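Lecture notes, unit on protein representations.

Consider one protein chain, 361 amino acids long.
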Amino acid sequence: MTSHPPVCTPTSFKKAAPVSRNSFIILSNWLFTTAGFVMVMVILGGLTRLTGSGLSMVDWHPVTGFFPPLNEVQWQSVFDLYKASPQYRKVNFGMSLSEFKGIFWLEFIHRLAGRFIGLIFLVPLLYSLLKKELRSWSPKILAIWVLGGLQGVMGWYMVKSGLIDEPWVSPFRLCAHLLLAFLTCSVLFWSGLVLRSKRNQATLGKPRFFQSLKNPNILIILMLIVLTICYGAFVAGMKAGLIYNTFPLMGETFIPSEILFHTPWYENFLTNPVTVQFTHRVLAVFTLGSIWLYGIKTLKNKPSDLEKKRIIGLLGWSLIQVILGISTLVLQVPYDLAVAHQAGALILLMLFLGTLYYKTA
């Protein structure tokens, strides 16, 4: 007796509808674009801090703040509010209205850019809701949008610390504000890479980032990058870059005598500008060394040509970032180099994440 295979009928067999890759690519492009805008925000934030513009707006109106003063009466009202601030009384006393407008506009543009990013980020959120194959990404994109909003709230919390007694913001709040910006940009960048991946849809959500951290070498490099960024924010907040403008020595020695000036000793690492600058230097050197050891080891394993280019790019930029930092210090923190160094830290983090993503793909 001969058996026959079952006959497939339209009711017993349905061909799976193919999932278009175009929607994933479009969404990833939006996330990459938004990450680029966040980087612009980091640059604008650096400029507002360096020029003292960040404390020119002494109030925060998340909705009505879209509009600047529109006539002389409104300008005078805003200027009168600023006159009550510590920065005016202790730094800019006697400043004219026209001079005030100069610092006001930079901070206004910085805040306006933040609102603009919040609005354009609604586009990928709506797009993910409209596309059936992307709806699983909607909660993730909404979470990133909320993270960006928290970064804005932290920005105002930071500014408030400079409006009470002293005309400068808390270095710790500055660090938190910067880290949230870097985190937002990192999540946007990583999510864009995941969406752009050519792997099948079933594995798109696999949390490979946390799995990669099981490698102690990768975890150490990431921790060093983050710690170096933190101490860079402390250096900026304490204006520690304006002391000991020599390298590799700090004055006439590698380790300055004031490094443990405060008691108890551990407070120096958070409150002593000399110790903060020294720590930032040491962390930067260790970060550079760890990245180069990681890169050389990877190159010895004969990676693909594309992976080799990524590693070489990471190595090259890590060296450029250190050169930018040394130049900023030695030249006593010129605006252009200081902003480039801050943006360079974000670029270095993105390059490392990109290398890490494709290495674990």
